Amino acid sequence: MDILSCIKSFTAVAEEGSFTKAAIKLKKSKVLISRHVSQLESYLMTRLFNRTTRTLSLTSLGQYYYENINPLISEITDINSLIREQKNGLSGSIRILAPNSFSEIICINPICSFNQKYPNINIELKLSNQIQSLSSEGFDIAIRSGDLIRSDLSLIAKKIFSYDIILCASTEYIKNHEKITCPTELSKHQLLTDPILKNNQVWEFCKAGKVSTFFIERSLCMDSAQAIKKALLLNHGVAMIPKIFVEEELNEGILTPLLQEYNLKKRNLYILYQNRKYVPYKIRLFIEEMTSYLNDHYA
């Protein structure tokens, strides 16, 4: 019996909640996954899963075993990867989870640069605004924009970039609507908000150390910075948006910044990865290259 393969099959079933999904994840047959789990249960002389025709769940001992064995499996995998990297050079793959709009506009450039520089490392990039578990979904890295959330606390978070937020509208929109001289006057305007940037309920403005809070009662809300930018260019309203997304339009005078005497809170970009004793060199290298590229080209 290959005990390590049995344990890997067990942890995959525990994370996926299904023998079929575990087989797909590990690219093995369902029969082999089931055999591995049965062999492991025989070896441990205990039942690890409660099985019915419709449900599959860990027993209390199965849960205890999973919580304690999973970090060890990750460590073994990392050590093996470290040895292979030192022997054979950089290779393998990096699975990345990143937010839609920000990655399409900003992150794709450094990712392509890294891929070109290290062609033997396969990059798998999944774009999604949904918060997903790195371990259960098999991702090596997650890119987060904005504030971290509670589920991120179990991971290592490295701030790699900070960027400005700007309040702006199209020059054409400004010509045809009432002038905006203070935050309260925004209530007279069509506002464009983005829940991903967490600005769909409250906008905060700081001037001379004093914070002014503007509560949004109505807006056109879209979870895409690209869609917000498109609406701005259609002369459809006022938006808070990352400045780097609209730099070209600002320089050309198509968009105009508003309330520039107020400061808006900067946002941070983070890379998150598993809290491991042995972080694979390819992961550390990717983080370094990503940080360097963003700060060289966009800071």
Structural class: alpha/beta
- What is the count of helical runs? 10
Radius of gyration: 24 Å
Spatial order of the strands in the main sheet? 4-3-5-14-6
Q: What is the CATH architecture annotation of the largest domain?
A: 3-Layer(aba) Sandwich
Q: Helix share of residues?
A: 40-55%
Please outline the major beta sheet.
5 strands, mixed
- The percent range for strand residues is 15-25%
What is the terminal-to-terminal distance?
Answer: 54 Å
Family: Belongs to the LysR transcriptional regulatory family.
Keywords: DNA-binding, Transcription, Transcription regulation
Protein name: LysR family transcriptional regulator
Organism: Paraphotobacterium marinum
Q: Short description, anyone?
A:
GO terms for molecular function: DNA binding; DNA-binding transcription factor activity. The protein is elongated. The model has no long low-confidence stretch (mean pLDDT 87).
Question: What can you tell me about this protein's structure?
Answer:
- The chain is an alpha/beta fold and 299 residues long.
- It has three domains: 84 residues, Arc Repressor Mutant, subunit A, CATH 1.10.10; 95 residues, Periplasmic binding protein-like II (D-Maltodextrin-Binding Protein, domain 2); 101 residues, D-Maltodextrin-Binding Protein, domain 2 (3-Layer(aba) Sandwich).
- The chain is 41% helix and 24% strand.
- It contains ten helices and 14 strands.
- It has a five-stranded mixed β-sheet, with helices on one face.
- Helix 5 links the parallel strand 3 and strand 4.
- Helix 1 crosses helix 2, helix 1 packs across helix 3 and helix 2 crosses helix 3.
- It is elongated.
- The model has no long low-confidence stretch (mean pLDDT 87).
